[in-house]
Write a structure and sequence with these properties.
The structure holds 2 protein chains of 2 kinds. Chain A is of the alpha/beta class. Chain A is built from 12 helices and 8 strands. Chain A has a single domain, classed as Thiamin diphosphate (ThDP)-binding fold, Pyr/PP domains (Rossmann fold). An 8-stranded mixed beta sheet of chain A has the order 2-1-3-4-6-5-7-8, sandwiched between helices. The radius of gyration of chain A is 20 Å and the shape is globular. Chain B has 4 domains: 68 residues, Alpha-Beta Plaits (2-Layer Sandwich); 114 residues, Fumarate Reductase Iron-sulfur Protein, Chain B, domain 2, CATH 1.10.1060.10; 140 residues, FAD/NAD(P)-binding domain; 147 residues, FAD/NAD(P)-binding domain (3-Layer(bba) Sandwich). The chains are: A alpha/beta, B alpha/beta. Chains A and B meet through helix 1, helix 2 and helix 10 of A and helix 2, helix 17 and helix 18 of B.
Amino acid sequence: MSSEEPSANIAELHHKQPAFRGLEAGHLACPGCGQALGARLVTEAIGPDVIIANATGCLEVFTSAWPRSSWRVPWIHSLFENAPAVASGIEAALKMQGRPTKVVAMGGDGGTFDIGLQSLSGMLERNHNVLYVCFDNEGYMNTGGHRSGSTPHAAVTMTSPSGKKRMGKRHLKKDLLAIIGAHQIPYAATATVAYPSDLRAKVRRGIEIEGAAFLLVHSPCPLGWGHEGALSIEIARLAVQTGFFPIVEMERGAVVNAMQIRNVRPVAEYLRPQHRFQHLFSDSPEAREELEHLQQLADYNIERYRLTSGQSESRDTEATDTVMRGGMRWS
Amino acid sequence: MPILTRGSFANAATSLALKTGDWRLQRPQYRHRSAPCAVGCPAGENPQAYIAMVAEGNLRGAWEMLVAANPLPAITGRVCHHPCESACHRGSYDQPIAIHSVERFLGDRAIAEGWNYPLKPSSPDAPRVAVVGAGPAGLSAAYHLARLGLSVTLFDAEPEPGGLLRSALPPYRLPRTVLNSEIARLLAVGIAFKPNRRVGRDVSIDELRADFQAIFLGPGTSRPREWSVDGTVPSDLRTGLDLLREWISIGAIPTYNRVAIIGGGNTAIDLARVLKFSGVDEVHLITFQALPGPAVRREEAMSAAPREIGQALEEGVTIHDRRGVRRLIMRGNRVVGVETVHMKELGTATGERKLVSFEGTETILKVDHVIPAIGQQLDSSVFGNLLGQPSIFVGGDARSAAGTVSGAIGDGCRAAIAIRNYLDGLPPAGDEMPRPIAFDDLNINYFDHAPRAEALILEVEHRSAEKEIEAGISHQDLNAEAHRCFSCGECMSCDNCWTLCPDNAVLKADTRDGWRYAFDYDHCKGCGICANECPVGFITMFDEQ
């Protein structure tokens, strides 16, 4: 009950944590970065025996300010578009050597939805035994917040401003999961930093599976989305609870599982804390129409992926991360 | 650190040398906040803390923590109106924690296992304190004085200790075995008990003053309040408490056909139930207070415990709430009926509250007896002019108008501390608690709904005045209840902060003082995720200087 900080040697404690931490402190991500948290959780679930190939993007930049690195695992960055190709080569070499080390490729949505899509498609088509993790913060946030193929409809970015003609991004968010599914790979899933138990379980599944696996992790960006860093988890959770970002699993291109939403929240609750959607709350017919459009897109997700069963389930949006005294649930 | 100049190459985890804590505008800190149950407990218990120990499987430790505030948990677990549960934040989510059931389980377990208070015997030259009245306030004061190392002598007018607990609480609410076990354990801590000594009759205040260095007075209220309707008093009038005491001590009660009891407190309800159990046809209870319900404000509701009111209704007691007696209908000097009228407490222009009766709402109720149960007052002939005397301390019903057992126990504890400070020449201690936590400061997303453990209650047809009506909960239900607790304002080691920090700046520290995490301020950027996602509100953000 003491309010004093424990008088432990903090620097030593970094080496005495009960779980492996693949991404260490001292990286240069913004306060409240969803991607930094996501990368941390993913590497913790994988463990130390892994090689990571990283595409250009925030994650690459903020973890590798030369001459220092935040990684505790072998990690390589080559180009924006070739992380899947690099990972494919590493996997082939390890296979030749008969070594069991896992291979993981990481990229942002820019490197995955747009720039590296071709090499990703090749890796999936050749069914390399690689887990590809895309941290989806819905824009080119490293270079100043430009729109990407993943930016949601109506979101304001530097290159999709809101004005007289348009209310933010004109186009829809690319349905990457359908593209991935078309490759008939053994396992693909979406996850979010708001539900770490679910995220870790999916990383382990993707690693265990023989063949290519793909994981899309929704990762809030306080700077690019325009919200308080403290709200990153809350916003990511609302994205799921509104149906805006569906949490699903696919095997061989078929949806086999979807996290059920116990209490569906109106999409405005997700949008309101974010500056990139503020223009939708102005008093104009256009704003009202676009707001309704986003609500319809969320409703369509719920319909399409069957996100409501009407029953309480142990892995639904309310129960997945129920806390327990002593922290048992995260393991 | 080796720096290789060829190409881009860096050693693992070398970024730890970068102190990104420099960026921080706000600093998270672990801060205990008071749980609403602890704030709401008149006896000064901290249910959140002992429920946490129950959840860890440490029943003995939980009981010892509980009796550090309240030495009589098996009794209060049964008879307290548990304001802790009305305050419980879980009530704003699904249903409050059954704190009274947890308290009772621990109290019963201690009796069954023969656990003793973790006390050291007081030294022979300890200061001597007299405690007057062996009711809940006096017993609590005696116990806490003994805990603080003082030598205690306890006086009571009756042959047996217990005060109102013994004389006014019927066995269906408080079995005598429970009462006797807890009081015997309490007196065994080295308290000298002097029965049959009424202060003012057998011993005077001045005599006590000569023999003791301080005096605690917990005499209760023994004088019935005056009652009449416009000066009319039936010749055979008996008060509610008087009848209840008579029934408890000799097991008999006068036979009535139709009775109206005036009052909305526990005595009124207890008497109504005892009369019903003993075969009275019609038992009416008339009170200007309201039946408790979701739409009724706490201060407007009947002061009896809601569960007792509910059970009385099940047993066939008729309650006329928000009504007052306008007139007694007399035949000679005997009552044959009462005229009741709708009544409500309303605010006046000066902000006070006053009772207003509404013309045109009069009803006649035929009864053959009227029994006022409107409370007692202090016997001021003995205790009237002791105010302001430095070595004399007062607690329990004698101090406040709306007395409760738990309030009296809290008074005893506070008085004991005040007496110790007085004897040591220290200033009186204030009641200091950490800032209470609001429901909105919890993060409810991390909890899931679970039903409250309800104790088994005897069916109406099996009830009698002698048999306890409410049972305790099972050990399994106890554990389930302990895990339902939100742990408001106190760390439950859930790992949320440790798991959700984007900067690895929350570390498991495994310290031994109850919580297990430490902030690495060299790397914490102050984003506030940990504070926002802490389910129990144990993390507060402070501006950096």
